[in-house]
Amino acid sequence: MGAFDGKVALVTGAGGGLGRAYALALAKGGASVVVNDLGVSRHGEDEGQALAEKVVDEIKALGGKAVADRGSVASADDAQAMVTRAIESFGRLDIVINNAGILRDKTLVRMNEAMWDQVIDVHLKGTFLVTKFAVEAMIKAGQGGRIINTSSYAGLKGNFGQTNYGAAKAGIAGLTRVVALECARYKVTCNAIAPVAKTRMTEELDMVPESYAAEDVAPLVMWLASEEAAGVSGRVFGAHGRHYFEYVMETTPGVEREQAWTLEAVGENFEAITAPAGTGGEAAGEDAARARAIFEALPQVFDREAGASWDAGLVFEVRGAGTFGLRVNEGRASFVEGAPDKVSAKVEFDSAQTLIELAAGQLSAQKAFMAGKIKADTMGALMKFASFFDLQAAGAIAAGGAADAQSPSAASEGGGQGAEGPNGEVVGKKFKMPARHLKPSEMIAYAEAVDDRQARYLSEEAEGGLVAAPLFAVQPLIGALEAAMTDEELNADMLRLVHGEQEMIFHDVLRPWDLVSPRSEIASVEEKSSGWLIEVRQRLMREGEVVVEASSALFVRKPSDGTSPKKSNDSKKARAGEEERESPEVVFSQEQVVAEDQPRRYAAASGDHNPIHVDEEVARAAGLPDVILHGLCTMAFAARAAVEGVADGRVERLKRMKVRFARPVFRGQQLTTRLWEVEPGRYGLETLNEKGQPVLTHGEVEVE
Ligand code: NAD
After folding, report:
1. Whose CA is nearest to atom 42 of ligand 1?
2. Under a CB-based contact definition with an 8 Å cutoff, are residues 425 and 504 in contact?
3. Active site includes 165?
4. Is the confidence at residue 351, as pLDDT, over 90?
5. CB of 149 closer than 6 A to ligand 1?
6. What does the pLDDT look like over 268-318, one tens digit per residue?
């Protein structure tokens, strides 16, 4: 059985070179093939050679099925005719490989209009025409499809003497991305490859090695055409002989100004605008030297008494600056070039800048950790490192201020986590995340992570197509929420933070490839007796309209004064509220067990990497017996119960949901969600653990 049994493919320009290799490989895999070729020379002249027929004969000799087509891809009538030929000859069309091409190379000033037009016509217009007619047929047949276009290094990176060809090939990459977006809902994927192989087109080019065979490129194209690549679309792959890779279009983090840009400001910021993520721009070299100086200074600021019994080999990888080591034993610390002999823990910094800001007290370690700027394979070692080494003193030594470093209080001033608590003056501050497309894979991963296994959340094949599980919107919103919570000016201590309440308002369901823009705003900061209550409102925009609204109430506990923690009046009131309510008449109840790997799965699928959910050492350091489940995962369990219990299993009917997080949830617990009617369309909800203690209270659900 071949991978393409029963499939029908159209390969343009398949009379030789790469196209022939694709046509033969597809036919060997069981596909019936329309072999198109206008039969022209390398420069598009001498039309009418029987190139397509020869390849058809080769396929037939191998026992395969094929028909020849001598049309030109640059003609709308011919392009339509080749699609029709596939359907008339073999009954359908599943795969199109847009491969036909010619060259008319000249430098810009020597290139005439005809040369420009010919190349743009065959490559760019030809790809457009064949794709358009093929997609029309694929949509009509409703069986999905695969389009594979041909781009080129010349268009993606640039090549001397090929303005026409480069423009056409870059245009094809752009066309590919747009077709992928438009066709996702029809299960038609569209990708491009940029090949390099020795063919008629490249026979005179010394830089293409003889060993680069067209047959070596074909397997990548075959894979993209196969069932396996159903989830791959809108991407461009390189195939240089047997070297396969992906071309990715990157953007730098860039600079956003409050005030309007001026010509001078652009010049001053140019390095920062163009600096890749984590490099710190032109200062990178200087920063690397400073990072090294900080590590060299660390042995001088080691707390010998506190760290007397610590025996460890630490390796620090600082992106863009190098690898540094520390050896600690018998109350001494020493700097090691590279990694020490025995490594007991590895710590990664995303850039030298992060280390420098930490050492200057401009960035708090918790925030850097929460934002993923620092990673450690052993949390315990990272915590010991933080308490036995005075990083800010090392920073001061590295900066040449050794005298200041003697006074730890001087080093801890300025930035960092102030003792005053969150700053109410930032109320109204807004945060905007870049727009992005929602991928089916992330929707499926989320539904799996919250054990909501309705077929429509898990498969694109489901009736009506894939829709996102009820609370999936929290995933695209998390970055906007985190941006608000870790805002330097807000100054909220992330390790003292608990999620109090969450409200979600749904205007529509989310679907794959929706283009969404997450926004957030610090809505209020209120001081209470035991801490600060911060409300962050979030909005997920889709094509200019709000599709989901969320509001998160977060509580930042005040640091304790060493006495045992007292229950605050606020929480007493909350508990009293629970007791006062009469027992409701439960209309639906659902049980769910928190799996051992649930917090880890949820962290991966939701993007909430707070270590308190995944790292036992961090949880214990926070006084908890084990890692706790994300509150929003518990809420997702409850949302599933709401949809299944009072919305006929239709996520579209869920319009609003609000809960209060009353107690931590641990792995292995059995949770029961109960719903009762308050008035038609409005329900109360609570979730209890197996001891009958409420973990979600004050639940409100509205359905349509
Ligand atoms: P090739 O010259 O062997 O094949 C191109 C085929 O397209 C020819 O058989 C030609 O007759 C046919 N053709 C030309 N105009 C046509 C038209 N209007 N309608 C239908 N058929 C037409 O060259 P190749 O190297 O096999 O190139 C295949 C594709 O790969 C081209 O799009 C080319 O730009 C691209 N490409 C090739 C390389 C390489 O290293 N070979 C590098 C980058 C991109």
Report:
1. 196
2. no
3. yes
4. no
5. no
6. 778 778 877 655 443 455 677 788 889 988 988 888 888 888 999 999 988
